Amino acid sequence: MAAHSAVLSASKIMNPFWVGRLGNTAKPPPAKYGGRHTVTLIPGDGIGPELLNHVREVFRFACVPVDFEMVNVNSALETDDDMNNAITAIRRNGVALKGNIETKHTLPASVKSRNNVLRTSLDLYANVMHCQSLPGVQTRHKNIDIMIIRENTEGEYSSLEHESVSGVVESLKIITRNNSIRIADYAFKLARERGRRRVTAVHKANIMKLADGLFLQCCREVASGYPDITFDSMIVDNTTMQLVSKPQQFDVMVMPNLYGNVVSNVCAGLVGGPGLVPGANYGRDYAVFETATRNTGKSIAEKNIANPTAMLLASCLMLDHLNLNDYASLIRNAVLTTMNETRVTQLCAEQCCCEVARGNLCCNLTRIHISFPAKLGNEMRVHTIHF
């Protein structure tokens, strides 16, 4: 029981929305058909399909009241039909779990990244990543606990490029006051709700005086409304140096789109790699959950070595969003227990044996359920699963 309490404690600090749905502006869709939720499932490319298969097996084993509506998106197509189907499904269900969709560099410049189209079409303006030291993971730095809030709909990811004359390309970076105010307010609101003490705005306003200057100005305006939270700012290049030298100094970080991409990958490396960190994208009406670093992992696809931890934890964030907190806690505790027991070789590294990891995870699901004070009734049943 003591070991279980320790895991439960670790689980609480892992989830930035542990108490209810703090910081999350999207309303959860109502349960349908006898209390079950329908979730859009987008396998994506690379390791996405196999990771989501593991999530489905774990959900089945734990009797999670979720039904998946699978929508495949073909990244090789130039048409938007598949993407439109996926967006329609998310609008219908309100929530999605997805693998990363590959962006083909061989396609014409007019073909936008499917991932960006998804986020902008649904106005998923806030990307949230909780980067934290995990049990059983040996890293250079200890006691890391950073929340990264990334503006998700504009900046360099606006996909506005053109060749003005032959050999000269212009790429537009879009920063707007409305979106900057919105993401800054999200960061401060989340910091207050989670009892955080400091928000750091990451920028490059010394060079991009208008664009990043506007973002920084908006952050300062919002900060004035939160006198209980310390606000500071840091230039992005210095930020990366400070992260790899003393990451414990950071608490909540808010930044434009491109810097968020860089900083989130650095932070993932600090706590053990991209296979360990979940991510969430929130808007006013919809929420999409995925791994935090958004890579397809094509080089290790179909080899049964892709680490399922990040996707499993992302599915737990999704369950919290659906107010299925007991199921989220059950699966999250089983994941942390499996990691802490180091029962799987290289489980906490970038690669592991997915089948063995899932088998040990299901064993821990059964064991933790016996002592876990969740209102699951007698729904945990014995299943025969062939790995």
Q: Can you put this structure into words, describing what you see?
A:
The chain has 387 residues and is α/β, with parallel strands linked by helices. It folds into 2 domains: 1-127 and 277-387, Isopropylmalate Dehydrogenase (3-Layer(aba) Sandwich); 140-270, Isopropylmalate Dehydrogenase, CATH 3.40.718.10. 39% of the residues lie in helices and 17% in strands. The protein is built from 11 helices and 12 strands. It has helices at residues 2-14, 48-61, 81-93, 114-121, 177-193, 211-223, 236-245, 257-270, 309-321, 325-341, 354-371, and strands at residues 37-42, 66-70, 95-98, 126-132, 145-151, 161-165, 168-171, 198-203, 230-235, 252-255, 278-282, 287-291. The strands form 2 sheets. It has a 10-stranded mixed beta sheet, sandwiched between helices. The chain has a two-stranded antiparallel ribbon with strand order 6-7. β1, α2 (48-61) and β2 (66-70) form a beta-alpha-beta unit. α7 (236-245) runs parallel beside α8 and α10 (325-341) packs across α11. The longest helix has 18 residues, at 354-371. The radius of gyration is 20 Å and the shape is globular. The protein starts with a helix and ends in a 16-residue tail after the last helix. The model is unreliable at 1-20, 343-353 and 368-387 (pLDDT under 50).
User: Total number of β-strand segments?
Assistant: 12
- The third-level CATH topology of the largest domain is Isopropylmalate Dehydrogenase
Intertermini distance = 29 Å
The overall average pLDDT, rounded, is: 83
CATH architecture of the largest domain: 3-Layer(aba) Sandwich
Rg for CA atoms: 20 Å
> Helix segment count?
11
Main beta sheet: strand number and arrangement?
10 strands, mixed
| Structural class by sheet pairing and helices | alpha/beta
Strand order, largest beta sheet? 2-1-3-12-11-4-5-10-8-9
Organism: Neolamprologus brichardi (Fairy cichlid)
Protein name: Isocitrate dehydrogenase [NAD] subunit, mitochondrial
Keywords: Mitochondrion, Transit peptide, Tricarboxylic acid cycle
Domain Isopropylmalate dehydrogenase-like: 38-356
